[in-house]
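Help: why these numbers?

___
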Amino acid sequence: MRLLIVDDEQPARERLRRMLSQEPGIGAIDEAADGIEALERLPAFRPDALFLDVQMPELSGLELAASLPQPAPLVVFVTAFDAYAIKAFDSNAIDYLLKPFDAARLQRALQRLRDRLRMGAPAPALPALGASNQLDKLLVPERSGTRVLPVVEIEWIETADNYVVLHTSKGQPLLRQTLAHLLGQLGERFVRCHRRAAVQLALIERVVPLDKGDCELVLRGGARVPCSRQFRASVLERL
């Protein structure tokens, strides 16, 4: 297993790393001091599971779990507070370790991870956010840091292998995420118009018909986005 420890307290990270390094079947261990750093490390390190603190500055463990790209690593929450247990398991956590814990308790958590990974089952998808609590910002890891991108700046989205391209007037950042999962988080503001694309509904200015039932969506900023006949009716209905 490849494990990423996410905790803003260095002594807690060091203790957990020592305990994990004594257990069999651990291939690699990395650390992140907060949720934003964890998101930056995910693409390169590709952990099987996160050992995730709950209370952290800027981005809590629960918020990080809800922001994980799909397919998401498994999550074990590690915290000194038992008040978050219900929310943790609602986010499909594999286990919930209360500090301080001993080696035997850690071994039970590791066995649960091994059992899930042995089954070849991916981490359960986190429930989509409803329109009342839809995301207003996305955290986009970049080489120079993490970009905070307001959702209103995203004109349209297209898939690119294991990523999505977020088309804005200021650039086209990449996010390691599936289009379907991201649309679930963005709520009703976006509509899927193609197997590989979605647009912000309020920005559509014109629908230009093409051959064979396809069409093209012209956005307020001038972008032209393909709309296939499979999605044309739903786009027009939403408009």
